[in-house]
Amino acid sequence: MRLAKGLGLVRGARPLLGTFLRPRAAVAAAAPARFQALVYEQHGEPARVLQLKDLERAELGHSGVHVKMLAAPINPADINMIQGTYALLPDLPAVGGNEGVGQVVEVGSHVTSLKPGDLVIPADAELGTWRTDAVFSEETLVKLPPDIPLLCAATLSVNPCTAYRMLADFETLGPGDSIIQNAANSGVGQAVVQIAAALGIKTINVIRDRPNLQEVVDRLTSLGADHVVTEEMLRKPEMKDLFKKVPKPRLALNCVGGKSTTEMLRHIQQKGTMVTYGGMAKQPVTVPVSAFIFKDVKLRGFWMTQWKKDQSQNKDRLTGMILTLCDLIQKGQLTAPACTQVPLKDYRIALEASMKPFISSKQVLTM
C-alpha cells in the first residue's frame, strides 16, 4: 500500500479502494471523513519511524467495505516489516500492522458477502491494521461468527492459523501421537498446545529458563500442555524418562534455531519432520549428520503468508480453516494468548513492551 506524500492519504490497488483524492473542483461541500493511522515513511526502529497521522478516508464506491477497526496486535513480523528485514515489504509510506479485527460500518452496492455489523479479519498480510478505520475491498476480508471474543478475533489470523496448518499439513497425527516445539510460550506455541489438546495429540513444550519460569509453566499447563521443559533440561539424560510416558514425537516445530533446534532433533522419531517457521535466536538451523543418515528426518519450512497467497484462488479453504478455529473458540478449546490492551494513542508504550525479552503478554492496540 502507498501513502501519497504530502497528501495524508493511503493508496493501494488491492487493500484500499478509491483512495485517490478527487480534484478540488469535484470535492463535495461536506468535509471528508478522517481517520488515524500509524504510518512509517522509511524503514527503521518502530519507535523512531512510526507516526500517528490524521488521514482522509477513501470513498466507499460500489465495491468498498467501510470497516471500523476494533483491535490489532503487534506481532514480530510487524516489527520486522517496519525495520525492513522481513521477506514481505509494502511500498512506503505504509500503515503498520497485518492482523486485527474490525466491524463493518457500510458496504458498497456491489458487495454481497458482508453487511453492516459483521466482524471481519484480514484475509492476507499488508492490509495495514494499525488504524481507526478504512475502506477495504471485499476480497481482502474474512467474516467471523458474531460471538467470537474481541481478543480471540484480533489474534486469530496469524498465530492460530500457523499452528493449525503445521499440525495438519506435514505429518498425519492422531490421538496419542506427540509433537515437540520450542518457543512454546509464544503466540503460535500457545495455539499449538490448545489445538493439539483438542485433537488428543500430546505436546512436549520447550521454553527458555527465566525468572518467572513457574508462572509460564503453569500457564502452558492450564492450556493443555502435557510436558513443559527448559532448553537446558532438553539436553539432559532425564529426557529418556519422559519418553517412557509419551511416544517420541513425529513432528518438531522450530521457531528458535541454533542449539535448541539441534537438541529437539535428537528426540524426534525415525523419519520424523521438523518444520521451521521462525528464527528467534537469529542462528542457523544446525542438523547433526546422524539425524539425516540414521533417522532420515525431513526438514521443512512454513510461512503463513505464503500459504495464504497459494490459496488466493481458493478462499473457501482459508474460510474453512477460520471457521474450524472459531468452532474451537466457541467450545472453549482455543483462547487468545495473554494480552495487554493499549489505546492507539499510546502506541509507543506498546511497541516498547513488545520488544522486551521474556514478555509473555501480546500487546494489542485498541481503537
How many DSSP-defined strands? 18
* Tally of DSSP helical segments: 13
Average pLDDT taken over every residue: 89
Distance between the termini: 21 Å
Helix percentage = 25-40%
Shape: globular
> In oligomeric terms, what are we looking at?
single chain
Beta-strand share of residues: 15-25%
What low-confidence regions span 5 or more consecutive residues with pLDDT below 50? 1-29
Q: Which structural class do the helices and strands define?
A: alpha/beta
Query: How many strands, what sense, and barrel or not for the largest sheet?
Result: 7 strands, mixed
Radius of gyration: 22 Å
Keywords: Fatty acid biosynthesis, Fatty acid metabolism, Lipid biosynthesis, Lipid metabolism, Mitochondrion, NADP, Oxidoreductase, Transit peptide
Pfam family, one: ADH_N
GO molecular function, one term: enoyl-[acyl-carrier-protein] reductase (NADPH) activity
Family: Belongs to the zinc-containing alcohol dehydrogenase family. Quinone oxidoreductase subfamily.
Describe this structure in words.
By secondary structure, the chain is of the alpha/beta class. Helix content is 28%, strand content 24%. It has 13 helices and 18 strands. The protein has helices at 46-49, 76-83, 150-154, 159-169, 187-199, 213-223, 231-234, 239-242, 259-266, 289-293, 304-310, 315-330, 347-354; strands at residues 2-4, 9-11, 34-40, 50-56, 64-73, 94-95, 101-107, 119-122, 133-137, 141-144, 178-181, 202-207, 227-230, 251-254, 273-276, 298-301, 339-343, 362-366. The strands form 4 sheets. Strands 5, 7, 8, 9, 10, 17 and 18 form a 7-stranded mixed sheet that branches. A 6-stranded parallel sheet has the order 13-12-11-14-15-16, sandwiched between helices. A 3-stranded antiparallel sheet has the order 4-3-6. Helix 4 packs across helix 5 (187-199). The radius of gyration is 22 Å and the shape is globular.
